[in-house]
Each structure stands twice: as structure tokens, then as C-alpha cells.
Known about the structure:
single chain; Aspartate Aminotransferase, domain 1; Aspartate Aminotransferase, domain 2; 2 domains; 4-stranded mixed beta sheet; globular
Amino acid sequence: MDIFDKCFKFTRAQETIQAGIYPYFIPVSGNDGPVVQMDGHEVIMIGSNNYLGLTHDPRVIEAAVEATKKYGTSCSGSRFLNGTLDLHIELEEKLARFLNREAALIFSTGYMSNLGAISTIAGRDDYLILDKSDHASIYAGVKAANGTNIKRYIHNDLHSLEKVMSELEPDKGKIIISDGVFSMEGDIIDPEVIKIAKKYNARIYVDEAHGLGVLGEHGRGSIEYLGLEDQVDIIMSTFSKSLAAIGGLIAGPKPVIDYIKHFASPLIFSAAPTAAATATVIKTLEIIENEPEHQKRLKHTSSRMRKELKNIGFDIGHCQDTPIIPIYIRNDEKTFYFWRQLFDHGVFANAVISPAVAPDQALIRTSFMSTHSDEHLDKVLEILEKVAKQIGLI
């Protein structure tokens, strides 16, 4: 048997390409935030995680340029050996202070942050308890934690979590790991999850990738929004959403962060974040702290679009006060066809099928930015309704 057999048998991508409905890997040839150039024409972007629109802020761009001039384009080494910049230390100190944590540690990507932290802190015979809708990077970290006991509970289902927790050995180490904002569903962790963790003497780890900069009075994420900051042990987030860069972070008790720092393979054996990305995050943090109007505009936009999409007749599930609004189609081919029609009419959203969601939960993932104008939103709503009616979705 040839190890490549599975590759040669994979034909689905080519079939959808030939059908003209393949929605992935479309190159962007121009980008000003809310409007991008793709495949030769202009589309309104409602598929980006650039929630605060800061990727095009002149101050952010200037910070990245100046850092590149000073430090070059690459650190050319790992944090562990020769790749730590004074900028990295500055950012970690600012992140810890911003998040009200003892310490923070940055990684080259958000994915590696979860992979590195989870696989490092989980010991043999520990229990890792996951929401079934947790991000793929969380599952990657769990998979890399050899010898641990993995338990899952139904998405945001307190009865399911309680049942799982009640059956665990009380003398074993336990940590509940959950997204703060779920990246496909657009809903928020139930605060009772954290209370159940305390009831069973389990630690709690929250991934704030889609919450940081979006939720909470100061933009610290879902747990600030829920008033539970002092009850969460570890916070993870990424720089590729509201923070306008690439990279990730882990924040929590100093001894825990120090342990991850010295044992996490994805940190030790990967090149350090670039100076440009690091300086970008320093500048975006400053903007988030001093200019709340970006977050307020995003909240207004998100609230309006949830209301309008529901009024049109779309099934948007249980999304909450976030800029992520799913449109459930629940059929892969229909999802691809709807996506194609939206694209041809000037709107880009994300077509999401299994394994990113359950096999019967295919959806169009829309996400909005503070820099979308009312005119952009009006046009998006007009096109969504028109196309949905044309193909019989509503």
C-alpha cells in the first residue's frame, strides 16, 4: 500500500473547482479593510477577523515599519536562544498588565500558543475537559499531551459538563478548556462553566482569540464581559484578530507561565515573532486602551446586523454580542452555491463545512468590522436577501 493513496483518492476539492463553487484559497490582490479585490473584482469583506479595523490604521503601519527598520525582517532564531528582542519583553509586560495577570508569554502564532501551553501543562493522568466546539488549536494541544485523559461535553451545555465532571476521579488534576467566544457559532462561554470548574476543583483555561478587543468594558474579552476575570486561571489569545498582527499569547500565574516558557516545544523550537508583528501589537494595545470608540462602533454594527439578518429570515443560531454571525445552511453543496452567488454579487463571506463544524451544521460565517460604513452594511443586507430569495433559502 502506498502512503500517498489517500492523496490520490482525494478529489472533492477538484470537483468543486470544476463546478465553479470552490470557496477557499482565493488570493487577495488589494485590501483596504472593508473592501478587497479578489479574483479580478471588488467585494465587500464580511469574512475577516479584523474586528477593530486596525490593520490599516496609519499609526499601526508606521509602528511596524519603524520596528522593521530597527530590528530587520526576522529574529532568525527562537526566543529560547538568540531570538528574544527587548520588544518581546516590553509586549509581554504590557499584555500582563492589560489582562490583570502576573505574567504573559508570546508565541509566533495563536495556534502554537494553544498547542504549546496545553501540551506542556497537561501531565500524565490529568483530565482535560473540552467544549465540543472548541477551536482546532485546542484539540491539537490536547492531542499532543500524551497520556492525558480527554473528556468532552456538549457545546455550552451545563448538564453535560456537570455529568462529565461528576464522573472524574477527585484526586486527579483537572482543567476545563473553552473558547470565550466561539469562532463559528458567535456565542459566548456560559458563566456557569467557570462555576462548575470551581465546584470540582478544576482549573479553567479560556481562549479569548475572538473576545480580546471586542468584549468587556476595557476590551479584555469574554470573561471581563461576564465579570469573571478573577476566577479564570489561564487566558490565551491571538494577535491575528483585533490586534492586527500575527502571533499569540498565554497569560496567567507567573510560575505557570515560567514553566511553559521553559518546556513548550512550539516556543523553544520555533522562530520568535518578528519585530514588525510585535510593534504592531504594542501599538494596537495602546489604541484599544485609549480609543474605546472603535469597540463601540463594532458593537453598534454587530447589533444591527444580528437584528437585520434575523428579520430577513436567516437562521443565525444563538450568536450573542459578538461580530460573528453565522447563517446556517446545513448542507455543504447549498453552502458552496450560496457563497458563490454572494461572491459574484460583490460580497465575500466564509463557507464553513465539516470538520470546522458538525457535518449537519454547514454555514456561511459572517463577521463584521468597526470600519464597515452604514453604506457597506446596507449593500451587504441587500445582496444577502436578494441572493437568498433567488436560490430559495428564505
